[in-house]
Amino acid sequence: MAQRDEVIRRTVYVSDIDHQVTEEQLAALFINCGQVVDCRMCGDPNSVLRFAFIEFTDEESARAALNLSGTVLGYYPVRVLPSKTAIAPVNPTFLPRSDDEREMCARTIYCTNIDKKVSQADVKLFFESICGEVYRLRLLGDFHHSTRIAFVEFVMAESATAALNCSGVILGSLPIRVSPSKTPVRPRAPRQLMH
């Protein structure tokens, strides 16, 4: 139980998230607070707004994240509160909303603890040489933290399955952590032109 409480203290609850905002855009917002361990987007597909849980490696990062409450992401200001729960196993109703998205998810992995010195091309080459062709890759990071995170979408689902076996493999000078992505890497929505 003590361990669970400690996880809860490292986790924040984010509400009022615009449905166009992706899990990676959300992770990108909080990357300045500290290293994100897990980012879980949830919500009702029938509602305009969703919510999320973001777990950090330490409590200081979670406390820093609370200061981002009110930041506009998409079209709405998000609310950030201390979480009352740890990130639970995925509730099936929150998962991708269409067969296409489910299929994209099956082909996508979430990779953390990526060495800063490693470039996007390096990450792509690493996964392609071991797992198969990469369709899309987003590498997120900043100058404050020693590691970055990436969402990697492969052409084939088998490649994503193979990539899960790369957890612990050294890339640059650090062991990467690979987990299945819970949301597809959705193409960014085109920005509305201001008239």
Features:
Alpha-Beta Plaits, alpha+beta, 6 helices, 2 domains, 195 residues
How would the global form be characterised?
globular
State the separation between the terminal residues, measured CA to CA: 55 Å
State the secondary-structure class.
alpha+beta
Q: What is the annotated CATH architecture of the largest domain?
A: 2-Layer Sandwich
SSE succession: HEHEEHEEEHEHEEHEEE
Strand arrangement, largest sheet?
2-3-1-6
* Overall pLDDT confidence: 82
Helix segment count? 6
Instruction: Work out the radius of gyration.
Output: 16 Å
Number of domains: 2
The level-1 CATH class of the largest domain: Alpha Beta
- Might you state the CATH topology name of the largest domain? Alpha-Beta Plaits
Number of strands: 12
CATH homologous superfamily descriptor of the largest domain:
RRM (RNA recognition motif) domain
The largest β sheet comes out as: 4 strands, antiparallel
Name the helicity range.
25-40%
Low-pLDDT windows of residues: 189-195
**Per DSSP, what share of the residues sits in E-state strands of 2 or more residues?**
25-35%
